[in-house]
Amino acid sequence: MTLVSVIIPTYDRHSFVEGAIETALAQTHDEIEVVIVCDPPVEETRAVLEQYDDDDRVRPFYNDERLGIAASRNLAIERAHGEYVCILDDDDRWDPRKVEKQLAVMEANSDCGVVYTGGLVRQNDRTVGTYTPSIRGDIYPEILAQFDLKPYSSHMIRADCFETVGDYDTNFDCGEDWDHAIRIAREYEYEYVDEPLVVRHFHDSNVSAAAAIERTDRLQLELDGTADIFGQIWSKYREEIDRHPEIERQLRYDRHLSWGWTEIERDNRRRALRYGWEATKNRPSPTSLAICCFAVLGTSALGLVRSVRDTITHTQFDRVNDHRLAK
């Protein structure tokens, strides 16, 4: 049977990592190994992982210093033995059939490098959004403009991909997943399983605070110094982007959107308006115009709109869940 390696980087989040290990071991596909790489501090995390000392499927490793998520993933991949690698963040959870369903798709297509799935977004114990997969096959160069292959914890990657395109770029503090996906897309096709097989949990300690309820919120990044992922992609792939004017326009649009939302959160209305207008010039849209409007109206109006939207969203999901339970 095919061995699948599940790699879990973690940092000082002992309350999450046990759930990640259990969701991997609970897969209907039996041949699973779980490789965990822990950035320090690790005392409480080590205590959790010691519960698995007698389970050969679980192999923890401990960094001597904090290396970050990209370097930790690279170390996990070096130690993985599987024919396929599954990405799993320590706070995300899987449907038990996830790996089995992905293997069926992967092994039916020798040109496929990655199979991803749909997912749910949960916050404060409520389902607040969904990821619906929509792109497959040859997705280069379109992936240069936008990383729309989420949740990343759904990705099953052929191990050969890492030999072909290399490891994660440790120059990226955030967005290393997008960068790596670009390199895979140059060489391989993408496929998906159109089912919500992953649950993402949003909370204060997420590395990326992208709110994934809808496109506008997915582009709103936390004010933590990592807001210009678009700029990092642009810098690394400048020559390739320059060869595709439509890609360049889309990237300019998305970059100005992210800056615009950031400045609205900072209540810097003048700069938010400027970025909203720049986004509108590249691609007029309801989202770019919304930035301009909220730049004028301020954060209180944005908060009111979000409150109404969240209430509607929660009500819709509650109705769906009630309907399922009734069945």
UniProtKB/TrEMBL annotation:
<dbReference type="GO" id="GO:0016758">
    <property type="term" value="F:hexosyltransferase activity"/>
</dbReference>
<dbReference type="InterPro" id="IPR001173">
    <property type="entry name" value="Glyco_trans_2-like"/>
</dbReference>
<protein>
    <submittedName>
        <fullName>Glycosyl transferase</fullName>
    </submittedName>
</protein>
<feature type="domain" description="Glycosyltransferase 2-like">
    <location>
        <begin position="5"/>
        <end position="126"/>
    </location>
</feature>
<dbReference type="Pfam" id="PF00535">
    <property type="entry name" value="Glycos_transf_2"/>
</dbReference>
<dbReference type="InterPro" id="IPR029044">
    <property type="entry name" value="Nucleotide-diphossugar_trans"/>
</dbReference>
<keyword id="KW-0808">Transferase</keyword>
